[in-house]
Amino acid sequence: MTAPVAPATSSAQPGNWVDPYRAYNFKLLINNVVEGHFTEVTGLGVKVERISYREAGNNSIVRAIPSRVSYPPVTLKFGLTGSPDLWEWLMTAVEGRVSRRNASIVLLDSSGSTEVLRWNLLNAWPQEWYGAPLDAMSRELAIETLSLAHEGLQREAGSGPAPAA
């Protein structure tokens, strides 16, 4: 009698090499509409503060419990284009009328065609913008920077296959 064989999985197993995803294929969706071509996204994160306390009757052990949760702003760098969409969204915040939108950073496979991971920014709004440095002696792209404040971060597996083993 033979032992049952476990089903094959695409997740990392001891002794199996799984290629990590590449960091250069991604896009930004705002309300499920693709917005621009971005060269860099930073700040995807979450921080859970801790409260330390001593247990009653046991002064030598310090315990910790979770406290407030905060989300740093997500910063987008992108090539300057003629599209006014992101600028107009920023201007609503400048005028005191914050337009909160759900935004998603979508990571694509190495071919750039299939979604593999998605980070959803809940109730995002533009909080900071920096124009492209202009230099007549440079041949670089004109890169603008936009930071989005948000109230929550969700991570979803994409619809595509996991990296090859």
TrEMBL record:
Signal sequence segment: none
Pfam family, one: Phage_T4_gp19
Residue ranges the record marks as coiled coil: none
PANTHER family named among the record's database cross-references: CONSERVED HYPOTHETICAL PHAGE TAIL PROTEIN
Protein's name according to its UniProt entry: Phage tail protein
Origin species: Dactylosporangium salmoneum
